Amino acid sequence: MSVLELDAISKRYGATRAVENISLSVPSGSRVAIVGASGSGKSTLLRMIAGFEFPDAGRILLDGAVLVDHASEVPAHRRLIGYVPQDGALFPHLSVASNIGFGLQGKAGLKRPRVLELMDMVALDRSMSERWPHELSGGQQQRVALARALAQRPKLMLLDEPFSALDTALRATMRRGVTQLLSDAGITAILVTHDQAEALSFANQLAIMRHGKLIQVGPPEHLYRFPQDEETAHFLGDAIVMPAQLSFGWAMSALGKVAVSNRHLSGAAQILLRPEQVRLDITEQEQSDLPRGQIIDTDYSGGSSNLTVRMNSVGCDMNDANHGMTVSIRCFQNSIPKVGSTVCVKIDGLAHVLSPPPSS
Ligand code: ADP
Predict the structure, then answer these.
(1) Is a pLDDT exceeding 70 seen at residue 316?
(2) Whose CA is nearest to atom 24 of ligand 1?
(3) Are residues 307 and 186 both part of a single domain?
(4) Nearest CA to ligand 1 atom 7
């Protein structure tokens, strides 16, 4: 069942189309990451779901009930939606306990056990309950913000770049902790981030936004392997994108004849391989049917090296335009081939055919 339904949502600020005709179903219990470059409309979309902004067109439904449409709108505090902003936005003049219990109804004595329970949930030591926000680290402040959002027992949790102010190590720890907590509590969550690694690790559904539009939605592993276009491919990780000629399930490319995922396409196209699909072989240089190239540059980076290879010979009919093309290949071997040496290239799995960029 879907908790949240966005139905053709649009929002403009003057001439800026911040969000354009977005429809999205968020299944119950799922963790969705909305990813996109800065300015792509992610926060605007999240703020409309929270009720801090209102769409110019479209409808938003939560558990089947209309939150906003052309005729009505439920105010933010009645939506049962938790919201954790980038900076935590704690009340500076209230203690940790008062921040967490801010929206809780009832007498102070009755609130106290719930506040302590929430502190346990977000792994905050109970001894911190009377501290002021400025006496907490960035990570602790974010935990307080999360506990405050959880206090309302929300149907949906919105997280707007909540880890971006934290340092790298703490960020990964917090992300794992929050993911676990939301999953254990069965809370549906939407995370907005511009960090693809964060999105891939947090979400079981990714939604890619660009220029206010939703480009592609799906499980992270599917979008990583089968991105719709070149920009999405590069956004989600290292990518080898090459021109190719397609026919009958094969692509003729700078890396030779490669099987493709879509057998029905033909003609000129861009194909994608992920670095882990490409292997270098220095022992089979005499084998004529493997494409060959010369190493022209190496870049060592610890666990792997990036090798620039100029393809100079293939044992199949290759599009002339690709001859002499350089490709960047990641090499995980201990001893990497030297600059100037000839290598054969082997491909694992299928290449993915990318959609052409929109003509406008
Ligand atoms: P993101 O979260 O992906 O960085 P935003 O949703 O913040 O993107 O912004 C999308 C676009 O809308 C940007 O061009 C931004 O400048 C514009 N925008 C956002 N909020 C406002 C506002 N309150 N007034 C005017 N323009 C805005």
Answers:
(1) no
(2) 13
(3) no
(4) 43
Domain that holds residue 257: 238-354
Beta carbons of 47 and 54 less than 8 angstroms apart:
no
Cβ contacts of 194 within 8 Å, gap of 6 or more:
35, 36, 37, 38, 42, 161
Last residue of a domain, one of 179, 214, 230: 230
Q: 59 φ, ψ to 5°?
A: -130, 150
pLDDT in tens, 267-310: 999 999 998 898 887 765 565 678 888 899 999 888 788 889 99
- Residue 313: count other Cβ atoms within 10 Å of its Cβ: 16
Atom 14 of ligand 1: nearest residue by CA position: 39
Same domain, 180 and 242: no
Residue 302 CA to residue 195 CA, distance in Å, equals: 22
Look at residues 256, 360, 266 and name the one whose alpha carbon lies nearest to residue 318.
Answer: 256
297 vs 308: CA distance, rounded Å = 5
Closest C-alpha to 213, from 23, 13, 1, 50: 23
Per-residue pLDDT for 144 more than 60?
yes
The DSSP output letter for 352 is: E
> What pLDDT does residue 66 have?
96
What's the pLDDT at 318? 45
> What integer best gives the mean pLDDT of the chain?
88
What pLDDT shows up at residue 334?
Answer: 72
Q: Classify residue 103: in a domain, yes or no.
A: yes
Q: In this structure, are residues 11 and 21 in contact, taking their beta carbons and an 8 Å threshold?
A: no
Can you give the pLDDT at residue 93? 94
Domain with residue 276: its CATH number is 2.40.50.140
Any ligand 1 atom below 6 A from CB of 38 = yes
Q: Which of 201, 230, 259 is the last residue of a domain?
A: 230
Residue nearest to ligand 1 atom 15, measured at CA:
39
For ligand 1, the distance from its centroid to the CA atom of residue 212, given in whole angstroms, is: 9
Question: Do 268 and 156 lie in a common domain?
Answer: no
Helix ranges (H only) for the chain are 42-50, 96-100, 108-121, 138-150, 168-185, 196-202, 220-225, 230-235
- Do 134 and 84 lie in one domain? The reply is yes
